[in-house]
Amino acid sequence: MEQAMEIGAITAMLHTRLLRKHIERWMEVDSTNAALSRSAAGGCEEGAVLIADAQRAGRGRLGKSWISPPGVNLYLSVLLRPQVKATEARLLTLIGSLAIVEVLDTYGVQSQAKWPNDVLVADKKIAGVLAEVQLRNGHIEQLILGVGVNLNMDRPTMDRVFGEAAAGATSLYEALQHPIDRDLFAAQFLERLEYHYLTFLEKGRACVREQWCARSFLGCRVSVKEEDMHVEGIALDLDDAGCLITLLDDGSTVHVREGEVVPLHQ
Ligand code: BTN
Q: What's domain 7-214's superfamily in CATH?
């Protein structure tokens, strides 16, 4: 990792109790998830937050990479050690996209959570969440929740930096046409994330699940790709394990665990 940066601006804005004790900010890392995982192996405490200005090897879901240019976006990972069963993991990770949707609300930007962990604005991806879980004896030992949010990239920059993927991407700058304070966005995100995390632990998953469902694309027609399966249907609901229940045209349902889901507009 290279040179740490000032974190005072972020902590000064935080009213959190867990996500404030150990916040590090680096100019550049390979991946904030990977770096935090190394710190966790060294015994780093729950609630640790790692933010980087740039990532050399940002990671996305399903083995994809997350292009992470310097100076423009948010790349942030949080270490959690929830005392919950492994079967809760998928539902718990919904707090990441739910928190982002709620922060975007405060900017007056309407967004939608897309299962499992994306956030869309006007059908384009503005943010993604990568949840990396370590299990032990049927329980979660450690969860690293990493979020990447496109904040200050204008359209020409996205076209240049993201290449082909730019067509499906957007940024908060693109939505608002003015620069975004990344420290403020990070602080707002941590506040909402902590709120939903503590709610999940104190009140159980139902509350988080209900709020996520209300902000997602349930009821829409979707295309689903998972391993060899490629089907279309209506995104119905989440099951108790957090899998997406999809109603196919023949009346049967599939429970999607790890796939790629695309909303279809008809
Ligand atoms: C996805 O949509 O596929 C998930 C993208 C997650 C990207 C973030 S950026 C911060 C954290 N560190 C990583 O290497 N990945 C996540």
A: Bira Bifunctional Protein; Domain 2 (3.30.930.10)
Residue spans per domain, the chain:
7-214, 221-263
Evaluate: CB of 33 within 6 angstroms of ligand 1. Answer: yes
Residue 199 CA to ligand 1 center (angstroms) comes to 24
pTM of the model: 0.95
Condensed to tens digits (0 to 9), the pLDDT of residues 58-94 reads 999 999 999 999 999 999 999 999 999 999 999 999 9
* CB of 155 closer than 6 angstroms to any ligand 1 atom: no
Q: Closest ligand 1 atom, CA of 34?
A: 14
List, in order, residues 6 or more apart from 199 with CB less than 8 Å away: 207, 208
* Ligand 1 atom closest to residue 60's alpha carbon, by position in its atom list: 3
Closest Cα to atom 9 of ligand 1: 148
CA 202 to chain centre: 22
To which H or E segment does residue 9 belong? helix 8-13
CB of 75 shorter than 6 A to ligand 1: yes
Our CA dihedral for 32, 102, 212, 228, rounded to 10 degrees, sits at -50
Query: Over the stretch 34-45, which tens digit does the pLDDT of each residue have?
Result: 999 999 999 999
Q: From 1.25.40.10, 3.40.1000.20, 2.30.30.100, 2.60.40.10, which CATH number describes the 221-263 domain?
A: 2.30.30.100
Terminal C-alpha separation, the chain: 47
Query: From atom 7 of ligand 1, which residue's Cα is the shortest distance away?
Result: 148
Distance in Å, CA 251 to ligand 1 centroid: 35
